[in-house]
Write a structure and sequence with these properties.
Length: 299
Amino acid sequence: MVNKKSGLGKNMDSLFGANRISPEALEHSKTASRSPEAGEKVVSLPLSQIEANPFQPRLHFDDESIKELAQSIQENGLLTPIIVRKTGSKYQIIAGERRFRATQSLAAKEITAIVRATNDDTMATLALIENLQRDNLDPIEEARAYANLMAQLQVNQTQLAEKLGKERTTIANGLRLLKLPNAVQDLVQSGDLSMGQARALLGLEKESQVNEAIQTIIKDQLNVRQVEALVKRLNAGGQKPQKKAESPFAKDLANRLEDKFGTKVKVNAGQKGAGKIEIAYLSEQDLARILSILSIEVD
């Protein structure tokens, strides 16, 4: 039976070739390094001659994970070479920036690499796919990467989705986050605001409303549904929904029941004669007292 690859997997094959090193492979796989293509070879390059990928969508690297990777490299060596391209007298990383940073932290002088001829379009696409496969990007980094890649490749949302093996709605929803004020985007990146909360804020018409909403969300620890309700209220002028006026019948009945049970009673009259009665009790003993008034025996 032939295993079908995901959209991202197929794109990686088309970009790297069937026998090339795949960026989705973990930095320290237990298997041997994959062979370079015909005409390519693994070489040692001075770290001082290597530059970061100019199309790298990932702006933040976790120091702890880099430290763990560095320890692994120190103990086992670099099992998978990084992939670079030559630009003038320097080299730019195509895949393997975490491995590069980890090796750099060990005060090493050189790193093993495969030099590959790659154009800007392929390099930008590779950088995004590599990070998407590892779930390395926060929602804002991902959205900015979509926008940059669309400009780089001169494609629309549908065409980009096809290239990345994504749904068009995924691309569209990500790009919408870039319409939020920079301060809100920063909160998403720091993890203080979820993608769902941020997306709900897109329904607000004024930046002043967004700022007000942010303060309320953080102060009251609102969930997504509560944020959506807050957005509706702010768009309606900031007025809280008016409570339905209590009917004279419900009010009178509640008072009479409170007198009988000696506790708080709430009567909610619904439509077509339906409704519900809520009787409050303060303890198990208080509940037993109320049940006794109702002639209900409890074992």
